[in-house]
Design a protein that fits this description.
Shape: elongated
Organism: Desulforapulum autotrophicum (strain ATCC 43914 / DSM 3382 / VKM B-1955 / HRM2)
GO molecular function: glycosyltransferase activity
Largest sheet: 7 strands, parallel
Pfam families: Glyco_transf_4, Glycos_transf_1
CATH architecture of the largest domain: Alpha-Beta Barrel
EC number: 2.4.1.-
Protein name: Glycosyl transferase, group 1 family protein
Strand content: 5-15%
């Protein structure tokens, strides 16, 4: 078997495509042809060639120095005359005269194709799915499939997604498909069997780092002529590595280091120079690096200690000179991630401490000290963006020619900042996670928790490393976690998501948004929580609420689709300026099995929790003023003034628990249970008589949802989302929050109804459970959000409204 890396650049390639290298005026490559030859031979290549852009200068030097096992090649920039779309075509084993002819006609790809066929030149269309000048379309790719018969299957500078999809497309071609394409574009195919394509491979190396690691093999033959003929006859294969964002970033970095060295611009004391010497140079600079390390060690600032730990870490593993470049890249990336995390922690700690102490100067000092170090991460993000620039085109190709994967679903990453906190979003997401796992959905939930809190996570969870956490005083039940940025980017990249869903606009949600933009992945944002409305209740300072509101609006403006729990909240968001065209309803499912308590078991349960006999009102959730709890207090005071046999049970914890307890002090039938595990809440739902939830800021109302599923009628406000999951007069009641007396009157009517007609009262709970069972299916909910389907809601029945102004009418209506 003979082989060659058919796509390598030398210092004769002078015009870079990367914006950064263009900006500084660097060449595309600084690799000498002799270095290319030696590295290719070290990698076991039978033959060596250089394929510079539109020049054979480097190739001529290579062939002159090593005539026996090299051949002249070039990477030609050709153009479709109808739209000026650039295409790169590799031409092998050509002569000077042939290159001159090619250079004269390359502005017309049709003339170039005909010339290649006439001269019987071996060729390969390079990185066909890479849009060189942002004009590549599906139609252009289809034209290429008719025009040419040999393509690069693995391009070492492109990621595995591009290479795998393109090879699958080429292998999917059939005689009928090629006949259709030839007729569509009125192009004569290149050969007699155009549905069979030849495949080549090349590293597309510009920095001298990966020469010979992606290559073309021919299964038989020993001579150069045998190899070239195998390319012509479509009998070659591609092998080797694809690129990733880290390798691309370090390749660009290597070119910049070579450029700086050629201009004598290197700063011997910079981290960039230190990293360059570790990755790309031999050991003679290590003494100098050790001296730099000692100088930093003597610094007393936090910044100095972070950098010292970085130097210490790198020097500890860099002494192993047997590691290849790729292994060293992995090591330095990990070290740089730790360096970035150190500065992130310093800034976040400063924000918490220094802002609270009023020391804004120290905060800005720490931010300023961090910026130069954080700048080193920029190449990784720009490289990631570069690799996925043509994601839409790849998606269209896959859809048109390959179809869905073996799993039949897109790979979905679902990001959330809350998963085990005390709130309805966490409960809802836990249900989504379990249901997705039970149904073998192709979805992974991305969270950020410390190791000690991540032990019980489900297998379909990706836990990012938390480097900083903080629980704000005003919301002690929630802990903010900051993920390790560069390590998280690597974890997410390896998941290869095809869709991203974001449940929260916190640090994890922001990371999901960033990755969606860098990887060209469609992103849906779920509007679980109205943070702006909550802030209006929780803060007296309007500026804080306005900042939260503006940030939230910005965040959801960045997503491709906004999933909203209810239509009522769609209207609210539209009134606030959100794009209605981007909104879709978030379908819900539920799968709970409430306990079947007898009346005796219910009394025993109530006694266990010291809840007196009588009519029991239940409230559950986070005890915070944004839940309109003071309105609930007012309602209960009115009810208790009218009757002495009505209980109020408050399940939950939160920042305003102490204040609510004080407001209800002296009411003997008020019971505070504290935080109840989710599974145990089903017992409270089952044993209570009415769920009362006057919140105006909830977008859905998970507790209302669960209460009804357990057969507990609910009373909710006419503002927000819960009103849509309660059928007024049939499964509960929807009342205005401007009038607490209307609530208390309704409750008192229900107390009388239970006393005088318990069968009619019980039917309301039965209706509630049936309404939830019929209308909320997990199969539909997961199909809706994961596969983008929008099923019709199947109504239980056309519920007539229940009017209960008087006891006699109440009994007849429920019956």
């Amino acid at each position: 078997m003979i082989c060659a890396d058919l796509h390598v650049h030398s210092m004769a390639s002078k015009r870079p495509s990367e914006w950064f290298l263009k900006k500084v005026g660097a060449r595309e490559s600084y690799t000498d042809v002799e270095a290319i030859y030696q590295k290719a031979k070290d990698q076991g290549m039978t033959f060596v060639t250089v394929s510079d852009h539109n020049t054979i200068e480097g190739g001529l030097n290579l062939v002159k120095a090593h005539p026996d096992d090299t051949f002249l090649s070039v990477e030609v920039t050709a153009y479709f005359p109808e739209d000026n779309c650039k295409i790169h075509i590799l031409v092998f084993d050509l002569t000077r005269d042939q290159f001159k002819a090619i250079d004269g006609i390359r502005n017309n790809i049709y003339l170039l194709r005909d010339y290649l066929l006439k001269e019987n030149l071996a060729y390969s269309v390079a990185h066909a799915t890479y849009s060189v000048n942002n004009r590549l379309t599906l139609a252009v790719l289809e034209k290429l499939m008719v025009l040419f018969d040999v393509f690069e299957g693995i391009n070492g500078a492109r990621n595995s997604l591009h290479n795998e999809v393109w090879q699958a497309v080429l292998h999917s071609l059939t005689p009928d498909r090629m006949e259709v394409l030839a007729d569509r574009y009125s192009i004569e195919p290149a050969g007699s069997d155009p549905w069979i394509k030849g495949i080549t491979g090349g590293s597309d190396d510009h920095a001298g780092l990966f020469i010979g690691q992606t290559y073309t093999t021919a299964p038989w033959g020993i001579t150069r002529a045998d190899f070239i003929n195998s390319i012509r006859e479509k009998r070659t294969f591609s092998s080797g590595r694809s690129n990733d964002y880290k390798s691309l970033a370090f390749s660009i970095y290597k070119i910049f280091c070579d450029y700086s060295g050629s201009r004598f611009m290197n700063d011997p004391h910079s981290i960039q120079e230190f990293v360059g010497s570790i990755l790309f140079s031999d050991s003679d600079r290590r003494v100098k690096n050790w001296i730099i390390r000692q100088k930093i060690k003597r610094g007393k600032e936090a910044r100095d200690q972070i950098i010292f730990r970085f130097f210490d870490d790198v020097l500890s593993w860099s002494r192993n000179r047997t590691m290849d470049v790729e292994a060293r890249m992995e090591k330095i990336y990990t070290s740089m991630a730790t360096l970035f995390d150190g500065f992130t922690f310093m800034v976040m700690e400063s924000m918490v401490k220094d802002l609270c102490n009023g020391d804004a100067g120290r905060l800005f000092k720490n931010i300023s000290a961090s910026l130069p170090m954080m700048f080193i991460s920029v190449p990784f993000f720009s490289s990631l963006k570069h690799l996925f620039l043509d994601r839409d085109l790849i998606t269209a190709l896959k859809h048109e020619y390959v179809g869905p994967g073996s799993h039949g679903q897109d790979r979905v990453l679902w990001f959330t900042d809350t998963i085990n906190d005390l709130n309805g979003v966490a409960v809802s997401l836990s249900n989504y996670m379990q249901s997705a796992l039970d149904r073998d959905c192709n979805a992974t939930f991305v969270v950020c928790l410390p190791d000690d809190k991540a032990r019980d996570l489900l297998p379909n969870t990706l836990n990012l490393n938390s480097i900083f956490c903080h629980s704000p005083d005003f919301y002690a039940s929630y802990t903010l976690h900051i993920p390790s940025l560069l390590n998280s980017v690597e974890q997410i990249y390896k998941q290869r998501p095809e869709r991203i869903i974001i449940s929260t606009p916190g640090p994890v949600g922001l990371l999901g948004l960033l990755m969606s933009k860098l990887m060209g992945v469609p992103v849906s944002g779920i509007f679980h929580t109205d943070f702006a409305a909550q802030a209006g209740f929780m803060f007296d300072d309007e500026i804080v609420a306005d900042v939260i509101n503006e940030y939230t609006r910005w965040f959801y403006a960045c997503v491709d689709e906004i999933r909203v729990p209810t239509r009522a909240y769609m209207e609210i968001l539209e009134s606030q300026g959100y794009d209605h065209c981007k909104m879709r309803l978030l379908k819900r499912g539920i799968d709970i099995r409430p306990p079947r308590f007898s009346d005796m078991e219910k009394r025993a349960f109530m006694g266990l929790h010291k809840i007196p006999r009588g009519f029991t009102l239940l409230w559950a959730g986070r005890v915070s003023r944004d839940k309109n709890l003071y309105f609930l207090v007012d309602i209960y005071r009115q009810v208790a003034a009218a009757r002495s046999d009505v209980n109020l049970v408050i399940c939950g914890d939160g920042p305003d628990l102490g204040e609510v307890k004080q407001l209800l002090q002296g009411f003997e039938r008020v019971v505070f249970t504290g935080c109840i595990p989710h599974g145990r809440m089903l017992e409270f739902y089952t044993c209570a008589d009415l769920f009362v939830f006057p919140s105006t800021t909830d977008t859905f109302g998970m507790v209302v949802f669960e209460a009804q599923a357990c057969g507990l009628a609910a009373m909710v406000s006419d503002v927000g989302g819960p009103q849509e999951i309660v059928v007024n007069g049939k499964t509960g009641f929807v009342r205005q929050t401007k009038d607490s007396s209307a609530w208390s009157r309704q409750i008192l009517e229900l107390v009388k109804l239970k006393q005088n007609n318990p069968q009619a009262f019980d039917r309301m709970g039965m209706h509630a459970a049936e309404h939830i069972r019929v209308n909320f299916s997990w199969d539909e909910a997961l199909g809706d959000i994961l596969e983008g389907e929008q099923p019709e809601v199947r109504p239980l029945e056309a519920y007539p409204p229940l009017q209960v102004p008087r006891q006699s009418e109440t009994a007849r209506a429920v019956a």
